[in-house]
Amino acid sequence: MMADGLVRVLSALEAGETMNRLEKAIVDRGLTVFARIDHAAGARAAGLSLRPTELIIFGNAKGGTPLMQAGQEAGIDLPLKALVYQDAHGKVWLAYNDPHWLADRHHLPDLPNTVLLTKLLETLAAGATAA
Predict the structure, then answer these.
(1) 56 is in which domain, residue-wise?
(2) Distances (CA, A) of 117 to 56, 79, 111
């Protein structure tokens, strides 16, 4: 089952390298990395198993604030997040919420930031997943 509003990009790299490249690209663009969460490590610490699964939370006020000014509840989906995971078939994916879907979810008007965030996420994902 696929989640609504989720963009998935197949990676040519292993999960750790995909996430490392994504984090570097985020930092290189001057964005803030708020957290990098290794869900698989958390599972191991609890005595459970989970294929490689990492979440990165990132952004900046210039990108997200206009969305929250238009609809403050958009803050539940901000800052931006991206998930890198290995599926049951060994394929590595980078997934993120489509900014247009977020705008629809929060009934936001057509904002330039939605287009800019979409282009940013597409660029970050393409760079992090390419061989």
Answers:
(1) 6-129
(2) 16, 11, 10
